[in-house]
Amino acid sequence: MRAVHRRDILAPLLFGVLLLVLWWQLTRGGTNIPTYLLPTPGSVVGRLVDMLIDGEIWPYLWVTLGEALGGCVLGSLVALPLAVVIHRSRWASAAFQPFLGATQAIPAIALAPLLVLWIGYGLVAVVTLCALMVFFPILISTVVGLRHVDGDVINAARIDGASSVGMLWHVEAPLALPSVLAGLRNGFTLSVTGAVVGEMVMGGRGLGMVLTVQRDSVDTAGMFASIIILCVVASSVYTLIQTWERRSMIIDSLRTSTS
User: Fold this and answer.
1) Model's pTM, two decimal places?
2) Which of 83, 103, 122, 133 has its CA 20 to 30 A from that of 139?
3) 219 DSSP assignment
4) By the 8 A CB rule, do 233 and 146 touch?
5) 136, 184 in Cβ contact below 8 A?
């Protein structure tokens, strides 16, 4: 376990250093790349520090995170019960399964113009777009997790007289939790993307608006800094959920071995 943790830390750090060195080499004076196309690492770091110290970016960041979180919650409230229905009912599984495959081929961003017509501009439309983006990853991961619950554990619970609701709450849901968290982990990352793109297309007061203003003013260093902030926030949430997922997998393995 100790070697694995060391590798997990060193590998991304080394890769990040490699990218920074490559970036620095590309922006050296001899390459003739204009700074409005690719700013230097120093200018991006300086712009990032100014944005964080001045506090100008924080209100917009909270708006974007609120939209992403709201989309995750809304998408989960629909996806999780539907996953249980698909898992429990063969008719529901047969009815929904073909459409799930077809709808995944449709980019959620392409739905933004329709959402503008149906809902309008602003917060509700952006949250709805985020919910659509997280819905399918959460739904599919949950269905897969429920279907891969150990049959022996389910049979033992049935012998003990567990009801359908009790089976779901005490047996299936805990054992499927790692898969549910995997869907949430991927879904939240997509939700942040949906919030930013939704603000650009449907209006908003978050980082999508900031990026639009920076683009119009050719503030490339500012755009890089805003994107870095988004990446750090999304990666932090991704890592937290992944840690929770790993712990739940350990607990599930211990529960299965003792049952």
Assistant:
1) 0.81
2) 122
3) -
4) no
5) no
Judge whether residue 223 has pLDDT over 90: yes
- Rounded CA-CA distance 195/190 in Å is 9
Distance, CA of 17 to CA of 25 (rounded, Å): 12
* Both structure tokens of 232: 């750090």
Please give the C-alpha separations between residue 72 and each of 89, 90, 215, 255, in angstroms, as whole numbers. Answer: 25, 27, 28, 29
**Distance of alpha carbon 111 from alpha carbon 115, whole angstroms:** 6
pLDDT at 1: 39
What's phi and psi for 105, nearest 5 deg? -80, -10
- DSSP string over 226-251: HHHHHHHHHHHHHHHHHHHHHHHHHH
Q: Pick the residue with more confidence: 112 or 257?
A: 112
Structural domains in the chain, sorted by start: 58-258 (1.10.3720.10)
